[in-house]
Amino acid sequence: MGKLKKVSIRGRVAFAIHCLKGIPELNEMNETMKSLILNRAWAFVEGKDLLDSYENFLDVTPECILDPKVNISELDTIDEETYYKLNFLFKTLPHDLNVILDKISYIMCSNLYSSVGSYSAITLQYLSDIIFLMRKNQWALPEIMPFLESKFEDARGWGFPMNRSKFST
Predict the structure, then answer these.
(1) Per-residue pLDDT tens for 48-60?
(2) Which domain range does residue 117 map to?
(3) In a domain, 124, yes or no
(4) How many distinct structural domains can be found in the chain?
(5) What is the model's pTM?
C-alpha cells in the first residue's frame, strides 16, 4: 500500500477500474451494461467535474440500484428499463464484485466535501478493501506502475484528469 499512497484519488479509481478487468464474471457481462458502468467510472478519472461524474456513477452502482427504498424517478441519469436491467444484473453477479463497484464510488466521494489530508487515508482504505477482495477471490490485480503517473501531489490529491489509455497495463 506504500506505493499507492503516492497515487492520486483519480489514479486510485483508475486502479480499481483496472482491477475489474481481472474478474471473469465482469467479462461475461452484457456488453451494454458493462460499458455503461465502466464509462461512468472512467468519466471520474478523465473529466473535470468530480461531483457530476461521481453522481452519474452512483446511479449505476449496486448499492443504489438494489436499495429497496430507491425511487426510480429520482435516478436522473438512467431510464426505467436500464434500472431493471441493472437490478437483474447486480442480483446475479458475485457479491464481492458488487462490493468492489460500491467501493469505487466510496473512493470517488470520500473527500468531495472535506480536505484530502496527507494521502487520503479513507480512499486508501477502500482501495485496500478492493485489493483484499481481489486476492480472496484469486482475481488478477493490475501492475501498479502506470498508476504512479497520477501523482497525489497534483491538484490537491485528486490528480489531473487523465485519459484511460495512460493507465494501460
Answers:
(1) 999 999 999 999 9
(2) 3-149
(3) yes
(4) 1
(5) 0.94
